[in-house]
């Protein structure tokens, strides 16, 4: 029994891809803007601090993540539009990895809240869990589309195999007319 049609899963995957594309494009613009405002030019008498190095590394990582997010979501939109099953795998793997990292971050914030009783950490935990739930739902939606496309490919291959087998059976068992020869009785 099918609860959700393939077309609905396809449309949902397209929407998820476009939303991810908008999100990561915005993140890229924000990261580039923050990176451009960072003061890399230190005066000779000032030594770069460890905080500056960490901030620069975080900004660079943020730019890389946003570029990868844009590319992965472009692939998702194309894969959902053309129903290409294998092109859905990079998005599914990337989201699963991001989900695990976000889960670890939420657990870290929860432990830190538990030991320090800081209210902002509680909000971090709450929003992390909310975003985890939303991202898991989106992952399940695209994963469902992946399985529908896989099922459709298997059925089309199976039907092709049946037709091919029936053609082979028909050609082998087809009654052939007897061969007549001219008999010469002279």
Could you walk me through the main structural features you see in this protein, from its secondary elements to its overall organization?
It contains 4 helices and no strands. By secondary structure, it is mostly helical. The protein has one domain (6-38, 53-168). The longest helix is centred in the last third of the chain and has 55 residues, at 119-173. The mean pLDDT is 78.
- Overall morphology: elongated
Counting structural domains, the number is 1
β-sheet strand percentage = under 5%
Mean pLDDT: 78
Classification by helices and strands? mainly alpha
Largest sheet: none
The unreliable regions are none
Rg calc: 29 Å
Structure summary, number of beta strands = 0
First and last CA, distance: 75 Å
Number of helices: 4
Helix proportion range: over 70%
Summarize the helix and strand pattern as letters: HHHH
């Amino acid at each position: 029994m099918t609860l959700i049609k393939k077309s609905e899963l396809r449309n949902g995957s397209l929407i998820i891809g476009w939303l991810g594309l908008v999100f990561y494009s915005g993140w890229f613009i924000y990261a580039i803007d923050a990176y451009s405002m960072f003061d890399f030019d230190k005066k000779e008498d000032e030594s770069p601090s460890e905080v500056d190095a960490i901030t620069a590394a975080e900004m660079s990582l943020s730019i890389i993540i946003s570029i990868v997010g844009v590319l992965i979501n472009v692939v998702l939109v194309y894969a959902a539009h053309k129903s290409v099953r294998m092109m859905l795998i990079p998005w599914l793997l990337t989201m699963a990895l991001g989900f695990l990292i976000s889960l670890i971050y939420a657990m870290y914030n929860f432990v830190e809240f538990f030991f320090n009783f800081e209210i902002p950490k509680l909000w971090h935990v709450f929003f992390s869990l909310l975003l985890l739930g939303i991202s898991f739902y989106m992952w399940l939606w695209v994963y469902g589309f992946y399985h529908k496309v896989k099922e459709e490919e298997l059925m089309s291959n199976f039907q092709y195999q049946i037709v091919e087998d029936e053609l082979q059976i028909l050609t082998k068992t087809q009654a052939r007319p007897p061969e007549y020869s001219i008999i010469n009785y002279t």
